[in-house]
Design goal:
The chain is mainly α. It has helices at about 30-60, 65-85, 125-130, 135-145, 150-155, 165-185, and strands at about 10, 15, 100-105, 120-125. It has two domains: about 25-55; about 65-185, no CATH class.
Length: about 190
């Protein structure tokens, strides 16, 4: 005695039907065509995702230490702008129209202080770019903000860290976490 397969729900239209075989998933030829097209789209999407993933992996492998340093600088600067949001420009004490993360000790002359929170504060575009940091006023207001001992520590001898790619990656995770904390996402 042959048993009839129990009723199934069509994968495309949702109608109940009695399949002639237990492996049938759709109720009609038109739903079968739709299922084939849907599966083809899914397969194409998976292929595209795999290609993007592979491209991303290859691009990551080509990055230099300098590329990682630039990426980290962007993240660190974003952190400083968010941290100091609502503050006045550290140099001119005016509300900044365009917010910059201005370094007290420049990143070129003092790369060891590039990612030091005490060395970087909210600054307006005018002071940071057109007045080369407006350093005299920056120092006066920096002392008011963090104290003379911490400013003198910045001005003293600081050791240059020799960061490797994995160090930059770890620091990116760290600063992104601090950003999320400030944005209230944690």
């Amino acid at each position: 005695m042959k048993s009839t397969p129990k009723q199934k729900k069509c994968k495309i239209c949702g109608e109940k039907f009695s399949p002639f075989l237990s492996t049938v998933k759709v109720c009609s030829p038109s739903c079968a065509l739709s299922l084939v097209r849907l599966n083809a789209k899914r397969k194409e999407a998976d292929i595209q995702k795999s290609i993007r993933k592979d491209t991303s992996r290859r691009r990551e492998a080509l990055k230099t230490v300098s590329d990682y340093a630039k990426e980290l600088q962007v993240i660190f600067n974003k952190y400083v702008r968010i941290r100091d949001d609502g503050n006045l420009c550290i140099s001119c004490q005016k509300p900044p129209k365009k917010k910059n993360a201005g370094h007290y000790k420049t990143t070129k002359a003092f790369p060891e202080l590039r990612y030091n929170e005490d060395n970087c504060h909210l600054q307006c575009e005018h002071c940071n770019t057109y007045l080369s940091g407006n350093i005299t006023q920056y120092r006066i207001h920096l002392i008011e903000k963090i104290g003379i001992k911490r400013v003198e520590k910045l001005e003293g001898k600081n050791e240059l860290p020799h960061l490797r790619i994995d160090d930059y990656q770890a620091l990116k995770v760290y600063w992104r976490g601090k950003i999320k904390e400030l944005e209230g996402k944690i």
